[in-house]
Amino acid sequence: MLDVHEWLKPLILAVSFPTENTSIRLAASGCLTPFGDTDATLAALLRGERALRPTPVLGADGGDAVPLALCPGHTLNETAPPSWLRLLGQLAEKIPGDGWGSPRRPVFVTSSNFGVGNLHAFRRTHDAAHLAFATPSATVALLQAQLGWGANVALLSHACVSAHLGLLLATRTLHAGLADEALVFSFDFLSPFVTGGFHALKILNSDFPAPYQNRDTGSIGLGDGAAFAVLTRERGDFAVLAQSLHNEMHHFTANQPDGAGFATCLAPLAAAAGHRRPWLKGHGTGTLEAGRLEAEALARAFPGSPLVSWKGSLGHTLGSCGLVELALAASALRAGRTPGTIGSAAPAFTAAVARESFDNRSFDTVLCASNAFGGAHAALLLSHA
Predict the structure, then answer these.
(1) Using the 8-state DSSP alphabet, how is residue 319 labeled?
(2) How much is the pLDDT for 5?
(3) Of 286, 297, 369, 370, which residue is least crowded by CB atoms under 10 Å?
(4) Distance CA 315, CA 52 (A)
(5) Distance from C-alpha of 253 to C-alpha of 282, rounded to nearest angstrom
(6) How far is CA 285 from CA 166, 176, 219, 294, in A?
(7) CB neighbours (10 Å) of residue 296?
(8) If DSSP codes are grouped into helix, strand and coil, which group holds residue 27?
(9) What are the structural domain ranges in the chain?
(10) Quick one: pLDDT at residue 252?
C-alpha cells in the first residue's frame, strides 16, 4: 500500500529558484499598517513604537482586553460595506502603472480572512447586506470593480504563508514568460470572528507579545495590514534571489518538535545565499515553541546573522504578514537601517536576536520568513539589484 506521505513528498518539499542569472525584480512595493504607509511605519518601528493597544476582544460585545492594532478608520466590528475597502483604495493608488488584470499583467490576491468577518456578522445579525462581502470571490470582485482590474486575477489563501504563495506563483509566471509584470496584493483586517478565534486558542491573551523572548507564557498580538508588490524581469532596485516553501503536514496547528520543518525550508536558501551576508526578518509572533524552533533553525542556517521580528509592534497581520513585512524590509534596505525586535527583553532564544535597531549597510541581503499553522513555512532572499 502506498504511503500517503511518500506520495505527497514531491508536492511538499521546499522549492526554490537559483541565484545564478536570476531576473526577477521587486520593482515596487508598499504597505498599510496602523502607523500609516510604508515610510511612516518604518519610521515608527525605528523609534521603537508599538501600535498594539489593549482592546476588547469582541469589540462592541466586550470581552477580555487583548493587544490589537487597528488602522485608523477601521473598526473591529464589521460594517456593510466594510470600512477597510476605502483603505485598500488608498493603498492601490500607490501601485504604479495600469492595465492590471490584463492577460500580460496578472494580479494575485492573497489573504487569510477575505470577507469572513462579514459572513460571521450575517450569522449574528441576519442583515443580508453583509453577504455582498462574505466570501473571497465576492470581496475580490468588489475590489476588481473598485480598482478597475481586468479578469486575470487569482486568489490564494493558506493561513500565514498566503502572501508568500502569491509571490511564488507570480515569480513562476514571470519565469515562464507568461506575463510581463505581476502584481501581488494582500490584505487582512481584523474582526471579532478572527480575534475571538485566536483568543479561544489562548495565544491571544492579556499579555503583549515578546517575540523570541524565553519566558513562561507565550502571547501574540493581531493587527490590520495590507500590502502590494510589483514583480518584473530585469527592472527594479531589488532582486528576488531565491524562494522556498515547505509544508510539514504534521499537525493541525503544531510543528514537528525537532524543528525539521524549519530546517527543510531554510536549507535551499542558505545554499543560495552562498557567501552573502544577510540579516533575518523572522516570523516571530511571540509564541514559545514555534519561536524557539524558528530562532534556533535560523541561527544554524545563517550563523552570525541578526534576527528581528516586528510583530511585537504591528501585531500579526496574518496571511498578509509576508507582504507587509517584505515592503518594510525593502524600505529598511533603502534607508540603511533595520528596526529591532520591539517588545522583547532578555533572555532570548538565541544570541542572534537583535532587540535594538542597527545599521544594515554592512549586509547585502535580507531573508524574509513566514510560518503558519500546521507546519507551513515560507521564506525568500531579497538583495539590492
Answers:
(1) G
(2) 34
(3) 297
(4) 6
(5) 19
(6) 21, 35, 8, 11
(7) 16
(8) strand
(9) 13-384
(10) 67
